[in-house]
Every structure is written in C-alpha cells, then in structure tokens.
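ok so I'm stuck.
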Amino acid sequence: MKPANKTTGYLIRVGDDFMFRVYDAEHNFTDYEIYHYDMQVTICDTDAYFYKNGDLDFIDYSPQTLGINNES
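replied:
not stuck anymore, here's the structure
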C-alpha cells in the first residue's frame, strides 16, 4: 500500500466501469479499480469540454476535435 495523493493518471472507461490508469517512467501502466466513492479529481486536459443535451450533462472532447460547431 502507498498513498495516492498527488498521483497523476488517467480516468479510463473499461466497458461500463471506470479505472484510474497510472504510467511509470518506462511507459508501463497499472489500472486501478476505483472503490473510493467521493475522490476529488481535477481535470487537466485542454481538450476536455462540458456539454449539455437536454437533461444530459457530459464531458467529451473539444468541438474542434469532434468536428462540430462551437455552440454552448
């Protein structure tokens, strides 16, 4: 066991689940299952955008990356 505080990684989707992927200096990775139910996360990705479609709020790639108009 070791502290996870200040670890940089990637939130990835695997099927219907999410994992936290952490790479080491040699580009190997470990995928951690997430049991923690209210962990604080900061998004550090300039290509991540918030969207709203009716009652659905979601995060996806930027409009430019998705090839769509940049509408709110």
